[in-house]
Amino acid sequence: MVVMAAKKACEMLSKSMLVEVQRWGCMKQTGVSLRYMMEFGSVPTERNLLISAQFLHKELPIRIARRAIELETLPYGLSEKPAVLKVRDWYLDSFRDMVSFPEIKGTNNEKEFTQMIKAIKVRHNNVVPMMALGVQQLKKGLGPKIVYEDLDEIHQFLDRFYMSRIGIRMLIGQHVELHNPNPPPHCVGYIHTKMSPLEVAQNASEDARAICLQEYGSAPAVNIYGDPNFTFPYVPTHLQLMVFELVKNSLRAVQERYMDSDRVSPPVRIIVADGIEDVTIKVSDEGGGIARSGLPKIFTYLYSTAKNPLDEDCDLGTGEAVTMAGYGYGLPISRLYARYFGGDLQIISMEGYGTDAYLHLSRLGDSQEPLP
């Protein structure tokens, strides 16, 4: 009897909850530009932190609700897969936390709110591999008959979903970081106002080479060209992630191509160019390139043969290991990071020779966040 009552209460709760999610999901999202985040955060007074918290208190539930609604209505039964249900529950929990939080009126409120959104960010740490696991569960069920081009809808959903996640995490991270009493020099939250792309490329390359060494026992050299004194405002963690991914792919291609050869493997080259509108980073390798027919596939979430760190056999909480192959999401997600602040990522390949990746970063910082 008690169990029945509890079940009934739970159903009622989820019903009223879903009505609430629908209501918030219909509201208009508000985008923020890199420049605005930088100017607003450069004086993190109590008043500014309060305004920021009040904005997030209204904005985040709208963004979270939209994703929760989409998670309910995915094609091919993806919504019913255990991993996707888990992600949906994280979003619903976070939505509940946000809307049940009282109006933010003073500094104490604001501090509690900041702790809460910090916890929300941690709750969603594993969303990407967990969704990848859901897609894997779906592919297993569909069998080899399915034409992956038909899964375009799922690809577009994942693009929207991950782009929105980048925005939510940027807004939370930026707000939390503005509370840092001793910010590093030239840093406004997550944004470095004098970031050296050369230095970030250097660090990302060293990280990628370390993984290559670990996996293959050797790694091609990485040569970096550009003005070491050039800086511009950007989010170093985003750039690190993108360059790391591109260099890692290049190292892997070169390493595999020259593994059994007597010749010394050619270096991967990184060129940083500062234009008026864009800063462009080119990553060039002589790793044999990609067939033209394969190029459209490199930006999809559905082709990777690599093992997911959260695969069935693993514990769902601990997918921390990075491998050279990743789980096939590196390129599409890097492109979303580039587009988030108005940039882009393009891959040009010469089959039989190598690949050039062009990472364009908007220098002006004026573009609004894309709001899927």
TrEMBL record:
Location relative to the cell: Endoplasmic reticulum membrane; Mitochondrion matrix
Pfam families reported in the protein's UniProt record: BCDHK_Adom3, HATPase_c
BP GO annotations: regulation of glucose metabolic process
Protein known as: Protein-serine/threonine kinase
Superkingdom field: Eukaryota
Family under the similarity heading: Belongs to the PDK/BCKDK protein kinase family.
EC numbers for this chain: 2.7.11.-
Principal place of residence: endoplasmic reticulum
PROSITE patterns xref list: HIS_KIN
SMART domains given in the database record: HATPase_c
Membrane topology: Multi-pass membrane protein
One GO MF term attached to the UniProt entry: pyruvate dehydrogenase (acetyl-transferring) kinase activity
Broad EC category: transferase
Presence of keyword Mitochondrion: yes
Residue span(s) of domain Histidine kinase: 236-365
Ribosomal protein keyword on record: no
Reaction it catalyzes: L-seryl-[pyruvate dehydrogenase E1 alpha subunit] + ATP = O-phospho-L-seryl-[pyruvate dehydrogenase E1 alpha subunit] + ADP + H(+)
One Gene Ontology term, aspect cellular component: endoplasmic reticulum membrane
Gene3D superfamilies from the UniProt entry: Alpha-ketoacid/pyruvate dehydrogenase kinase, N-terminal domain, Histidine kinase-like ATPase, C-terminal domain
Keywords: ATP-binding, Endoplasmic reticulum, Kinase, Mitochondrion, Nucleotide-binding, Transferase
InterPro entries: AK/P_DHK_N_sf, BCDHK/PDK_N, BCKD/PDK, HATPase_C_sf, HATPase_dom, His_kinase_dom, Sig_transdc_His_kin-like_C
